[in-house]
């Protein structure tokens, strides 16, 4: 191993090449190019094969990173894919969109004094190669079981659970109110981070494996939760969080002030070739406009970068804290800066100005960072008399998401939620207060990450399997 691995002392870190700013500002294609095979092997060989791999400890899926790095360095890519896909349902997606700087790569030990191994890009390379060479197979049921599971939500949590359960032979039905599977991976996250074909090919492979999709089917509108429980032996709720946090203040009802997800869904649909009247009319299209995005998280970064690509006249991101305190991934902030987005730190919106019923500016106040609060985070304090107006034709609100009122939506008052509105589960079993009804992903954690949703989906599949086995064999258990 010694001559092939531990190359970090000799080789510098290199991420796959990024497309030039001038080129990528004009289209929605992914911005990172694929590694050349030699570069992937070289980068993988920088790993020092730690006895206690902190990269793995800080990967929500406990991916066996050192092993697949070593196999990649040795050119044994099919085996590398086998290892990578044993713990991750979507390695090609996590490799693209995990905030690696906060997870695996941020905890790689050679970060100290050297630069971390490029784990995410190698994971993407392994999985993309597997797709290209036909090594990816549809979920295969060893034997067909009679019991069925209904999954509400075709996002990463629902799909990860579906794949695991189908592989064990259950009859799996996935319900989603949208017309495509993928959840926020299809309609939230833009193409320049995750091209939609990458999601669609997994969805197609799941269909080939016998998972049945019921799209355009909203639970609560088309089918109630009690009806779904009648149909299936177990139910998994993975509906995500969609209630956008709002901003009030004077002028909040003016035209041209839009929620981030409406804006991103319209753009993603347009890129998918759908007819989107609000995009065509200009209501959800930044072309030629002065755009202000309110917020500093990943959703805000996706909005500013979408607006650049739509040909906005100017794009400003207004955030009440400073750059060091931004919740969004630093890599995405750097990409936005390169693409010409202007950041207005330490500024908070207070209301809007308008002309003829349409927004013409965001009224804001400058902030400064005060003393830390109980959580240790510095508080933001408005600076007296510092009010100003930032002119705009489109204001996009990207202030975060809360859960919808699920008990009311599902017509099931007995479904217990926490005081934040997330679904309450027993964390050992992942079961809600309703027997046989499980939950996971954002609807349990609050707005989180794709990789955590996958983890929840896989864990829920284990718990559901254990529950169904127990249900199927009460006599055998009693006889023991
Ligand atoms: P979702 O992906 O939200 O899927 C839930 C599904 O349930 C949806 O398809 C929805 O239509 C369906 N549904 C809801 N209610 C019903 C109902 N009543 N009946 C039927 N179906 C229903 N994470 C990252 O790791 N990296 C990123 O770069 C990143 N970027 C993001 C960008 C944006 C703009 C947003 C909004 C989020 C981003 N995230 C990112 C977060 C990530 O997308 C979520 O954490 C993840 O998708 C949650 O998965 P989920 O399966 O719990 O829910
Ligand atoms: Fe890193 Fe995410 Fe892959 Fe885990 S799943 S190894 S955190 S990129
Ligand atoms: Fe390799 Fe870094 Fe993980 Fe250690 S922490 S096993 S060097 S990737």
Automatic annotation (TrEMBL):
<dbReference type="InterPro" id="IPR028261">
    <property type="entry name" value="DPD_II"/>
</dbReference>
<keyword id="KW-0004">4Fe-4S</keyword>
<dbReference type="InterPro" id="IPR036188">
    <property type="entry name" value="FAD/NAD-bd_sf"/>
</dbReference>
<keyword id="KW-0411">Iron-sulfur</keyword>
<dbReference type="InterPro" id="IPR006006">
    <property type="entry name" value="GltD-like"/>
</dbReference>
<dbReference type="Pfam" id="PF14691">
    <property type="entry name" value="Fer4_20"/>
</dbReference>
<dbReference type="InterPro" id="IPR009051">
    <property type="entry name" value="Helical_ferredxn"/>
</dbReference>
<protein>
    <submittedName>
        <fullName>NAD(P)-dependent oxidoreductase</fullName>
    </submittedName>
</protein>
<feature type="domain" description="Dihydroprymidine dehydrogenase">
    <location>
        <begin position="24"/>
        <end position="134"/>
    </location>
</feature>
<keyword id="KW-0408">Iron</keyword>
<dbReference type="Pfam" id="PF07992">
    <property type="entry name" value="Pyr_redox_2"/>
</dbReference>
<feature type="domain" description="FAD/NAD(P)-binding">
    <location>
        <begin position="149"/>
        <end position="457"/>
    </location>
</feature>
<keyword id="KW-0560">Oxidoreductase</keyword>
<dbReference type="InterPro" id="IPR023753">
    <property type="entry name" value="FAD/NAD-binding_dom"/>
</dbReference>
<keyword id="KW-0479">Metal-binding</keyword>
């Amino acid at each position: 191993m010694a001559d092939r691995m531990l190359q970090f002392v000799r080789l510098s870190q290199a991420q796959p090449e990024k497309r030039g700013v001038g080129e990528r500002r004009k289209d929605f294609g992914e911005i990172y190019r694929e590694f050349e095979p030699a570069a992937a092997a070289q980068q993988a060989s920088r790993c020092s094969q730690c006895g206690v791999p902190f990269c793995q400890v800080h990967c929500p899926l406990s991916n066996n990173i050192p092993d697949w790095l070593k196999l990649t360095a040795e050119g044994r890519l099919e085996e590398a894919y086998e290892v990578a896909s044993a713990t991750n349902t979507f390695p090609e997606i996590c490799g693209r969109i995990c905030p690696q700087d906060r997870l695996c790569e941020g905890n790689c030990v050679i970060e100290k004094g050297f630069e971390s191994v490029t784990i995410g890009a190698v994971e993407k390379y392994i999985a993309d190669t597997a797709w290209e060479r036909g090594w990816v197979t549809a979920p295969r049921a060893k034997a067909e079981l009679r019991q069925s599971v209904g999954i509400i939500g075709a996002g990463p949590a629902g799909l990860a659970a579906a794949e695991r359960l189908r592989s064990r032979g259950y009859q799996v039905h996935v319900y989603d109110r949208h017309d495509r599977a993928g959840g926020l991976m299809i309609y939230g996250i833009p193409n320049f981070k995750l091209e939609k074909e990458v999601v669609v090919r997994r969805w197609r492979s799941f269909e080939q494996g016998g998972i049945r999709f019921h799209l355009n089917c909203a639970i609560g509108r088309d089918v109630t939760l009690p009806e779904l429980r009648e149909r299936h032996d177990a139910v998994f709720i993975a509906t995500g969080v969609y209630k956008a946090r709002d901003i009030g203040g004077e002028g909040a009802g003016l035209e041209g002030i839009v929620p981030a997800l409406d804006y991103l869904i319209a753009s993603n649909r347009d890129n998918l070739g759908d007819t989107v009247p609000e995009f065509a009319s200009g209501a959800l299209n930044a072309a030629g406009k002065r755009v202000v995005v309110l917020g500093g998280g990943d959703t805000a970064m996706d909005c500013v970068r979408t607006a650049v690509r739509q040909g906005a006249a100017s794009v400003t991101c207004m955030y009440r804290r400073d750059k060091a305190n931004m919740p969004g991934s630093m890599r995405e902030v750097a990409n936005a800066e390169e693409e010409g987005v202007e950041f207005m730190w330490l500024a908070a919106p207070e209301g809007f100005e308008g002309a003829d019923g349409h927004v013409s500016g965001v009224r804001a106040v400058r902030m400064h960072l005060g003393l830390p609060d109980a959580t240790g985070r510095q508080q933001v304090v408005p600076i007296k008399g510092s009010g100003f107006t930032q002119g705009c034709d489109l204001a996009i609100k990207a202030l975060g998401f809360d859960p919808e009122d699920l008990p009311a939506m599902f017509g099931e008052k007995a479904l217990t939620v926490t005081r934040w509105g997330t679904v309450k589960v027993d964390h050992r079993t992942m079961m809600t207060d309703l027997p046989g009804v499980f939950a996971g992903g954002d609807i349990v954690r609050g707005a989180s990450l794709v990789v955590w949703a996958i983890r929840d989906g896989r864990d829920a599949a284990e718990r559901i399997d254990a529950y169904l086995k127990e249900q199927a064999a009460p006599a055998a258990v009693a006889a023991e």
